[in-house]
Every structure is written in C-alpha cells, then in structure tokens.
Predict the 3D structure of the following.
Amino acid sequence: MHDQRFPVLPTPLTVDLDDAQGVAVVRPVGEVDIATVDRLRDVLDEALNGGRDVLVDLCDCLFIDSTGIAQLLRAQRRCDDRGVLMAVACLPSGPCARVLLLAVREWLQLHDTREDGLAALRAKRQEGTRADEVAADPDRHAELSMLSEEQRLSLKGFLERHPACCLEVQEFGKGFFVVRARQSERGSLIMERHIFPSRQTPAAAVQRES
C-alpha cells in the first residue's frame, strides 16, 4: 500500500488526431479511465465526423478500462452506420493488449502496429468487391431484400468484415427489423442489429456480438 502522504497521481492523457493518407488516426497517450475517457470520446467523435476511415493507435496507451473499451465499441458502431472502416493498433506486448484480446477481439479489427492497421484499412478499401455493392445487391444476401436500400446500406460496414455470414431478418412492422448474423447456418450469433424505418435516426440501434 502506498504512503498516504504521497498519493499516487493519475497519469495525464493526451489524445492526438492526425491524418495518414486519408485515414484519421486517433492516438491516446497515457491512461484511459473514467476520469479521462471524455477526451478520447471527443477526439473519436471529431474523427468520425470527418467521414474518413479511422485507426485508433493504442501503442502509446498505458492503460484502458471498461469506459475506454465502451468508447471503442461505440466508435465501431458509428463507423458501421456511416459505412466507414475502423481498426485498432496495439502492441502485442503493450499494457492494453491483454484486455483488448480478452474483451473485444471478436468485435474490433486488432493489429500489432500502426503501420499494420493502416495497411489493412488500405487493403480493404482496394478490394474489388465493396461492401456497399454487397449491401445494395439483395442477390448477395437474399434476406436483405426485405429492407430498403437505405437500410441495407446501413449494414455495409459489418458486411464488409463478414461477407460470408448467414443473415436472419425479422420484421416487427412499420419498417422496423432485427437483423441477426451467424458464422454459419446454425453457428453462433456474431451480430444483432436493430434497423429502424428509413430516414429515422437509429438512436437506439443495438449491435451485439459474441
């Protein structure tokens, strides 16, 4: 136990926002916790509002708790909704690696270095089959024919990461749907998304992955 006369002060957090060949790079330096997470959230929002693909570089992050993880997942959902890509860079031996691997490796694209993350984002952007084509073409996923084009396009971020998933679409009336994705026809659930009527802001949209 530390000496009460010399309290342990929290490590300050700075969050930089840079541009790397058209990718918004968010780089937190320090510790992300309940006292500092608002800084991360604000910079993530700024990056997302720019309409670019996003890389969160955690290589200089000394600590991240559940509040920081929640912001990463929130940012991923917003990227999916906007049709942009997101990746996370974290050194395998870094202090954040273990919690990320245990908590979110199925939900986020994790890469060992900033360079690897940028390369992966560029490669996805250069793929011949684009997610918007997959989402806009019901023949690729016949279940999506129940949705409007606008609603299908809201799923393109997820479909880009899981082009071979099996989809289930359930209608609850008045243009409201629940879309579930599984790894195979009877496989485990990897995503559940609430799709709201076209032109209605999906403020309560839910994505659950396992």
Summary: The two ends are 38 Å apart (CA to CA). The domain at 14-125 is CATH 3.30.750.24 (Transcription Regulator spoIIAA). The beta strands are 14-20, 23-32, 54-57, 61-64, 86-89, 110-111, 166-171, 177-182, 189-195.
